[in-house]
Amino acid sequence: MSRPATANCHETSWREWLVALVIGCGLSLYVWRGFLAGGGLVGGDTYPYFFPQKQVLAEAFARGEIPLWHNRTSLGYPLLAESQAGVFYPTNQVLYRLLDIHSAYHASILLHYAAAFVFAWRFCRSQQLSATSALLAAMVFVYGWFPVRVSLEWSIIGGVWFPFCLWMTERFLQKPNRRRFACLSLGLATHLLAGHFTLAFITQLTCLGFAFLSRPRQSIAYVATGLGAESPPVGFVPTMILNRWRAAAGVVAAIGVAVTLAAVQLVPTYELRQLSQRDGSHAVFNPSDGHMPPMYLTQLVASWWYWHTPEMAASRESLKHPFLLSAGDTNPVEAHLYVGLIPLLLMMSLLSTPVRKFVRTTNWKAWGILAVAGILYAFGWFVPIFRHLPGFGFFIGPGRYTIITTLGFAIIAGLGLDGLLRRRSSTVRIVLTTLIGVITLPDLLKSAEYPVCDAQVVEYPPLRGLNESWLAKTLQDEDSKSPVRLLSGGPNIGNLFGVSSVPQYLGLGPAEYFSKELAVDTQPKSADSVFPAPEQLQRLKLLAVTHVLTTEPVQNLSEECELLGSGPDAFLNRVWGRGTADCFLYRLKNAAGRVAVEPTSALTQLHFLRRSSGDVEFEVDVRDAAEVHLVELMFPGWEVAVDGNRAEALQSSGISRSVSVPAGKHVIRWRYRPQSFQWGAIVSLLSVAVLGICCIRRRDNNSRG
User: Fold this and answer.
1) Nearest-10 crossing angle of helices 402-420, 101-126
2) Does 705 map to a domain?
3) Residue 425 falls within a domain, yes or no?
4) How far is residue 111 CA from its own chain's centroid?
5) What CA–CA distance (Å, rounded) separates 681 from 674?
6) Are residues 622 and 482 in the same domain?
């Protein structure tokens, strides 16, 4: 006998919540137990991308500022607009104010893994899974998809809201009201504030697809009567279709409200995108990058013991097989899809007629459709078509759509387990499910190990050695005399020394940085060639580079450079895994400096008064009228004042900020005050106020009634 179709899994007891919370926290602490002993991540984007952002974020918070600009990566870029710093994301606002960067970053990972498990469990319960199978499904989802992507902070920071928003969608579909609509909108908005909007867009699409495909309440009630085999009453099917469209319209409205709530983040990001390498005119941006090669689908049954072996990962064999229609590049992290062997077998149990009858009142078909759709788009086949639709062309990484597949497979596996154990006692269910979980967890984690995952937990993380770094001390001493800009082989790594560095590493960056004219060599082209070469020196002076960092001694050093120091570095050697090898720091003898004056003979004195991420003030003394250039990126929002009076900038873009001054001594101040942030903040505040008023009025009306 099948379970009653009207079985209510939309309400759970506090004991079930407690069990899910304890297991979620326990799994997070167990899997990432290295963090508890003071360890930390190294590899992937952790140090080149996220720590430089978090450093500027924390320093701005400590000064009581909103970190709108990052002044250390190359010539600077709009930090809020780039989005991955998550400036207004709630946990970032708390953790990076209370803890040091290293502790805040890893505490955030622990917190979000635990929350992702609880949210996934709760949504799985709403999909009519039993309490025990929902726990298993949540584990398969969280630890099947996220650990391999641990070097990409946005994956778990944003991915935690994927099951949460689906749960809010389910609640809204079951009982549409203003409060549930507000909860869904707030969940979607928080996802957007987390930054890196790929998963947020995928979440919105999934919520919309789920609303349209999930079984309406009327259909469930009809099947529950036992009349499923008979013809439905007249008007039933049109009503069901109409309800699906109404549900989808409600989700669309919630997405719209979420966009206005997160406008403080979205408006600056949209402005940056219009002026970035993703504006549609740069070949460097390919939406097909990060797809999943079709042959890689076999990793579902041949993951860590075949496709993810060091030999196969190095050979990139998956890119040599047929059916690979995408022209983009990929990597094992983006292409990863694995749910464990036992869950895969549980999915196959739906081939059994009794099990299918048992789950007929659930949404297993809807999740089957969504899971397959996620796989097909992950192949990259439809990117050339879909990139012309709103949203799809903004992002790379179609392999990320496998997050839908992983959750769908986890839910179907859980339903299959319930079907197989439907006649068993609760004790047997708990014991067998626990046994499956104990076997499946290491199976999942094994598939996410190196060399597939490009990051690992080390006992003594590099950031802990920053205070002992001779490079950091030397560069900061140099920076206290005159602004330093470092040329280094590791993009953005130099930021962590507290100085500006080139070249840059940005996912969404100003278009100027992707120009061939600004490309610089970070090492000699050959052992006997002069470094920096004459044309390279001209480019370095154009970028106001003052120092050069190499990991090997320069055999034929330019006469324009001098060795400042050498030796193993407590920070850099750990970042690059170089053991006790020496690092070499050179200084350009006649570096042009951060401020240039035309004509050059007019400058008699220069003194910096203030240098922060979004505020630069300096004093110049010129004997003649001149143009004063600050070699930092000019971007919409930068305003200049001369001697306290608003002045007119000479250009609106480019690699320098320029202003004209008459002869004499002047104080020039550049401040970043973007209108995109101001307008976005106004829209967000108004949206919060309107949503709050609507919910309060509704509650008051209900109270009077």
Assistant:
1) 50
2) no
3) yes
4) 16
5) 11
6) no
- The one-letter code for the residue type at 15 is R
Tell me: do 636 and 582 sit in the same domain. Answer: no
Tokens of 118: 């609880």
Which domain covers residue 664, as residue numbers? Answer: 595-673
Instruction: Verify that 546 and 582 share a domain, yes or no.
Output: yes
pLDDT tens digits for range 11-33: 788 999 999 999 999 999 999 99
Q: Are 268 and 677 in contact (CB under 8 A)?
A: yes
Q: Which portions of the chain are predicted below pLDDT 70?
A: 1-10, 215-241, 279-284, 310-327, 697-705
d(CA 77, CA 90): 23
For 601, residues 6+ apart whose C-beta sits below 8 A from its C-beta are 623, 624
Q: Which residues pair with 659 in a beta bridge?
A: 628
Cross-strand pairs, 606: 620
Q: CB within 8 A of 1, min separation 6: which ones?
A: none
130 with 230, same domain? yes
3-state SS, residue 217: helix
Please check whether residues 569 and 613 belong to one and the same domain.
Answer: no
Q: Note whether 461 and 575 are within 8 A (CB).
A: no
Stated as kind and residue range, the H or E segment containing 640 is strand 638-642
Whether pTM exceeds 0.90: yes
Distance CA 251, CA 213 (A): 13
Q: What HEC string does 72-135 produce?
A: CECCCECHHHHCCCCCCCHHHHHHHHHCCHHHHHHHHHHHHHHHHHHHHHHHHHHCCCCHHHHH
